[in-house]
Specification:
Layout lengths: L1 H8 L17 E5 L6 H8 L4 H4 L3 E4 L1 H8 L17 E2 L9 E2 L2 E5 L12 E6 L1 H4 E14 L4 H4 L4 E12 L6 E5 L2
Parallel strand pairs: 1-9, 2-5
Antiparallel strand pairs: 2-6, 3-4, 4-5, 6-9, 7-8
């Protein structure tokens, strides 16, 4: 999964493509330098088609999750932070936390902090918005003479898997980024 999410988010394997965060046609929801708020998150979610929202998840760095985890909804007046926490913590440690019922995926591939104009996190159903494919299947190579292997009379197996993706519904992806 980490290799897959890395390819989808940044697509470093193919520099001519931009990855999900910078794909032309994605919905961009900006937030001020003071930080992201519950209202900005909520507004961004509803800027994509309802069909794309079904099965969607929030993708963010653990540091951003920590900030959002401490956010509270306003109870009486705007900004009073006296309401319930936005993130629902599951009782089972194997379940993902949720934000308004949508799972949160924490990944180190996304930035922990962001410069002005840079993307920070996104909300999407990658199964509906991107096509992921296997380019060549698995390639296996038996290694027997690689330095320490030969010295210790060992062998190793190198496995190569080439994959690719194409965002087919960028309008179903909302990227949250700081105002430039």
């Amino acid at each position: 999964f980490p290799v897959t999410i890395h390819a989808i988010i940044q697509n470093v394997a193919a520099p001519r493509r931009a990855g999900v965060l910078r794909t032309v046609g994605t919905v961009v929801e900006t937030f001020p330098a003071t930080g992201i708020t519950a209202d900005i998150l909520n507004n961004g979610m509803y800027r994509i088609p309802a069909a794309a929202m079904r099965g969607a998840k929030f993708y963010m760095h653990p540091a951003q999750f920590s900030l959002i985890q401490r956010m509270r909804a306003s109870a009486i007046t705007a900004g009073d932070n006296a309401g319930n926490y936005l993130v629902h913590q599951p009782t089972d440690a194997m379940q993902e936390p949720t934000l308004w019922g949508y799972p949160i995926v924490k990944t180190d591939v996304l930035p922990a902090t962001t410069a002005a104009g840079a993307p920070l996190m996104f909300f999407a159903n990658l199964n509906k918005t991107c096509v992921y494919g296997d380019k060549q299947g698995l390639r296996l190579k038996l290694l027997t003479e690689a330095g320490q292997l030969a010295y210790q009379d060992c062998i190793a197996l190198r496995v190569i898997k080439r994959v690719g993706y194409v965002p087919i519904l960028p309008a179903g992806i909302v990227v949250f980024q700081r105002v430039a």
